[in-house]
Amino acid sequence: MIRKYPEQRKYFYMDEAWSMLADSMGEFLEGMFRTIRKNNGSMCIITQELTN
Question: Distance between CA 20 and CA 26 in Å, rounded?
Answer without folding.
Answer: 6
